[in-house]
Amino acid sequence: MKNLFLLLLFIPLVSFGQESNERYKLYSTVNMWTFLKLDTSNGLIQQLQYDIEGNNQYITTIVKPRIDKKDESIGRFELYPTENMFNFLLLDQYNGLLWQIQWSLDEKNRGIVHYFYGNNEEKFPQHMLDDNEFGSKKDSIN
Predict the structure, then answer these.
(1) Which residue has the higher pLDDT, 26 or 132?
(2) What pTM does this model have?
(3) Burial, 62: exposed, middle or buried (Cβ in 10 Å; 0-12, 13-18, 19+)?
């Protein structure tokens, strides 16, 4: 019985340190009809807009993949909400790069607002630092 108790105490510690194996994650926004879908392997972010009547449903890309295909790894990217309801921070957990991204119902206001590179700017390929232009094409999900 004592051994079982010790085993049960140890299991949560072992589980806590494991990496995420979720390729895609959904993040809610303050708009009940809008979610953000993150591909954790490459940083691709899509905005999912839906309604119960089916008249205004779409998926649109806000942020293109941030890394080359060869460097993709599940769990590499994470998205964090901010106090600004339209902004999230995208973190590359391998190298510490951060992008401030913005979702919006207005397509010209979607994209990367700013990136943070600290003292490592010279270490990153330019395509990882380039800002997406605001505005994106809607891809229908109907």
Answers:
(1) 26
(2) 0.72
(3) buried
